[in-house]
Design brief:
mainly beta
């Protein structure tokens, strides 16, 4: 999330106050006695952006207000995971794009492409080279600091979003039924300035199974190579994290069946996937980043879910509840 904020009114008030103070204290003696702030600008005034401007990585802005920012990404994942479950044993490629207005309103879309003939092995159609999911969405998101709200002790980032999950006919199940489309609403809040950087996510399926999924993640980004200036992002950073998911009865039943049965839904909620991840990010330039990750997923705390997770993978090539996954992602911001 872009963390620039609207400070135009505050800056205007400060400048006006400076003008009044300078005029009140001016004396007729001395070479610079009658000089005004316009004639002797401060360092802050000299560095503050004025009028329309464009910066790669920050987008188009007016003064200190961000107007529009666009981004594009391309990700590779060794497996397609959902809630710690393997939806696709083989690799997927995900191009994505988003556009943000005024640091608040976001529109995004992502498409998942299968790069193998996995579908044929699992009883689906051959999905190699075809997209298996399209995810358009919109959200409201922003970062608030104590400069915005005096009572805030730390930065708070939030996002409230909607997404539509579309599955083409190529996602037809081995029974012949096409993959069912669905819709989600989500809410996310994080405290990025705390050392453990907690992030809480709420997701509700409002179309298919009415399931609710919660996730709490704790992590910390360590700078391995600092940026050129103190306020620059690190050139190279490493972020370990651990996350724990929780699903209600509908969410679990929408994905898992009781161990030893073929179609009897697992009808209880509880702690779902645990994820331990390490991510390395290289800030190639102000507008381009390359990141890579490795992650370990498992169902550690619920025996019934753990047994059901062993049965989930469609081809039967896995008989464990744990999985190791890795990936790369290239992201550009304009």
């Amino acid at each position: 999330m872009n963390s620039k904020h609207i400070k135009v009114l505050a800056c205007a008030a400060a400048v006006c106050g400076g003008v009044l103070a300078s005029n009140a204290n001016a004396t007729p003696s001395g070479k610079d006695a009658g000089a005004s702030p316009q004639e002797k600008p401060t360092a802050e005034a000299e560095s503050a952006p004025e009028g329309w401007h464009y910066d790669a990585g920050s987008g188009l802005g007016f003064g200190e207000q961000s107007i529009v920012t666009a981004s594009a990404g391309l990700a590779f994942d060794s497996k397609f995971m959902s809630y710690g479950l393997v939806d696709n044993k083989d690799p997927i490629v995900t191009p994505s794009a988003s556009i943000t207005f005024f640091d608040w309103v976001n529109f995004e879309v992502a498409a998942l492409f299968d790069v193998t003939k996995y579908g044929r092995k699992a009883g689906y159609s051959n999905r190699g080279g075809k997209y298996i999911e399209l995810d358009p969405g919109a959200s409201l998101s922003h970062a608030f600091t104590s400069e915005d709200l005096e009572w805030l002790p730390t930065t708070v980032e939030f996002s409230l979003g909607y997404a539509y999950e579309y599955h083409p006919e190529a996602m037809g199940h081995r029974t012949g039924d096409p993959g069912e489309d669905t819709q989600f609403v989500s809410f996310e809040v994080s405290l990025p300035d705390l050392w453990v950087e907690p992030t809480f996510q709420y997701e509700r399926d409002i179309s298919r199974d009415n399931g609710t999924y919660l996730n709490l993640e704790l992590g910390h980004a360590f700078a391995l190579i600092d940026g050129a200036r103190e306020d620059d992002d690190p050139i190279l950073s490493f972020r370990p994290s651990i996350g724990q998911g929780l699903g209600n009865t509908q969410r679990v039943a929408g994905y898992l069946v009781k161990h030893g049965t073929e179609d009897e839904a697992l009808d209880h909620g509880g702690l779902m996937d645990t994820c331990i991840k390490g991510e390395l990010t290289w800030q190639i330039s102000s507008w381009l980043t390359l990141s890579g990750y490795v992650a370990y997923y498992d169902y550690l705390f619920d025996r019934q879910m753990r047994d059901a997770a062993r049965d989930y993978e469609a081809t039967g090539r896995d008989d464990t509840s744990y999985h190791f996954v890795g990936g790369l992602a290239l992201n550009a911001t304009f």
